[in-house]
User: Fold this.
Amino acid sequence: MLLELAQWLAKDIRAFNVFGYITLRAVLACLTALVITFMVGPTMIRRLTSYKIGQSVRDDGPQSHLPKAGTPTMGGALILVAVVVTTLLWADLQNRFVWVVLAVTVGFGAVGWVDDYRKVVHRNPKGLSARTKFFYQSLIGIAAAYFIAFTTNLPAQTEFIVPFFKNIAYPLGVFGFMVLTYLVIVGTSNAVNLTDGLDGLAIMPTVMIAGALGIFAYVAGNVVFARYLGFPHIPGAGELAVFCGALAGAGLAFLWFNAYPAEVFMGDVGALALGAALGTVAVIVRQEIVLFIMGGVFVVETLSVMLQVASFKLTGKRIFRMAPLHHHYELKGWKENQVVVRFWIITMMLVLVGLSTLKLR
Amino acid sequence: MREAHRGLIWGRLMRNARYDDTRIHPRFWIITMMLVLVGLSTLKLR
Assistant:
């Protein structure tokens, strides 16, 4: 929206041409989302508290979590509002990638919203049934995959890129691309949701990965950098750097309120939407494996749940003291803050490894 | 500091801060990150 305004003003005042640069708009989007979240946050937390939209805590979880009961949840809506408003303000609204990422984010947010709403307002502990939730996630994932697959105009946009190898790229074809896209979007969404169990644990890795994916999007969308670094050039993908900037800014500001001891939780409305957003950006910029590397904490948390369930069903024994993995470390004696900051450090290292694939190929 | 800024946005954001408040550390990291962003924007804004 502001891009169009700047372009119109630039006809008379050339200085407004500076807003045409994606890098500047990404930084401004980040700061705008930060400010929106900071401004709206306290009011929203007060509202959520007054409506008694409080989180219920699992009875079988660590004892140290019992005092968290009643902390306002559904704060993810705050992130979504900031991201959507900021993206509409700073991104190029003619860009199809911007719209598909926004649609997926809002769609998954809506699924999470219904789930949270039923749990905390209707006091229905089951919320949406797992099957219903998965059905709607799949519906949005398939729709997004279909849209991206049938609007690509270059074969490179559907190739499976292997990091660290310059010349290895597997053509997936339309069906293969759609299956991969669906799995990445739905998988990342649920992985972030599983990780969201400690104060600040899910949001900071999301911020770091969004920042890194923003760099990948910028490179993929810039013909000079893409050619220099040996990446497939994806026209229009650079605009996703603005979306990633907004995501990082809103997430960072949300952490202000979500830091231990949290004043608000993001709930499914935030976790499902943020995960789906990261997954969608990763498939558009063709960096699924890099997302897998950078989101190692999300991957390991998900694997810990799968292994725990499989082991218990097959042998009757548990591998971890409790799943997801963050609870295992809490029960081993780590303080909540230690688990969270250490998982952030691991993510920071993994994001650096992911970013190294820009050049190491 | 907190008293001096009561009523301003800073005061609202820091209203729960106490010496033993673990939120202070990440909040100062966030402020630093914002300042780094502003610094980075000077790459282009000149």
Summary: The helical segments of chain B are 9-13, 24-41. Residues 24-41 of chain B form the longest helix (18 residues). Residues 15 and 31 of chain B are 16 Å apart (CA to CA). The interface with chain A takes residues 9, 12-13, 16, 22-23, 25-27, 30, 33-34, 37-38, 40-41, 43-45 of chain B (CB under 8 Å).
